[in-house]
Amino acid sequence: MMPTDVAGVVLAGGKSTRLGEDKALLTLHPHFSQTLLERTVALLTPFVNTVWVSGRPGHLTRLFAAREQRGSAACVTAFQNMHGRFETTVAIYEQAALPYLQQAVKRKEYALHRAVPPERWSGVFYNAAEGSAFLNLNTPDDLAQARLLLESLVID
User: Fold this and answer.
1) Which of 64, 78, 112, 124 is most exposed, with minimal Cβ within 10 Å?
2) E strand map for the chain
3) Is-above-0.90 flag for pTM?
């Protein structure tokens, strides 16, 4: 049974400056009619009670705003790669993280990995093969790489 107090937040307010087009409105392959934003919401929906899409600039500001709306945000459990890097935007933020997030916003520190002290993070490790789930789409080259990957997976 799914907990009733679990909300999902999709951070979709970036300017897509390096990419040169609105990332949220992209489709990655002709076989997929969903935009990246629609697909992200669809993937998250089965695991949470509520999904919010936040469009305010700055990931930390957006997470904080969603937390205030809902009332629950993690000291942090995040996916962590084999090099120790946390996927800060794919994480569970517990109520205990709220004071750290509030202090970071006051300092105008909007990077999630700097908001909560390292000793308050825990990781769920993933290997290189599983890392494709965390592709960044920040530049035209990133987008081309993602489309090539999808093309290799799509069977007509």
Assistant:
1) 124
2) 7-11, 50-54, 75-80, 86-94, 121-125
3) no
